[in-house]
Amino acid sequence: MKLDEIQTLLDDNEKITDDVSKESKKIPILHGKLLGVRASENLLLRSLNLELQRTYATRWLFYSGKAHPEEYKKENFDLKVLRGDISTFLEADQQLQTIRSKIAVQEAKMELLNEAIKGVMQRTFLLKTMLDYQKLISGVM
What we know:
Layout: H1 3-12, H2 20-63, H3 69-75, H4 86-92, H5 94-138
Helix pairs in contact: 1-5, 2-4, 2-5
């Protein structure tokens, strides 16, 4: 799911009406929906981390001079990288940066979903406060 799709999902469910009964029934549904989205996004984050590890190992072999000679021809790379400079090359590697960028976006999604789930759980307190206020206004309390 894209970040803006998650934001749209949250925006659609952000509005709380004065009907406390109706809103309280929506809490478990929204909570379950967000947990499902978070679970699938968490799996994607884990797979990206595994991809980063595999790519890191491959690129380390590449820069350390241990890769297949065809790899160097394919990328037109004819430098001899010193052992102390391998980390610099790995930090600047385009393939690794692309994966790290995907991981950063995925972590932002996870943070957004975690905060949204906390917000849904806090709705019960908000709804109780709204109900108490309605009781106070109507003279029940």
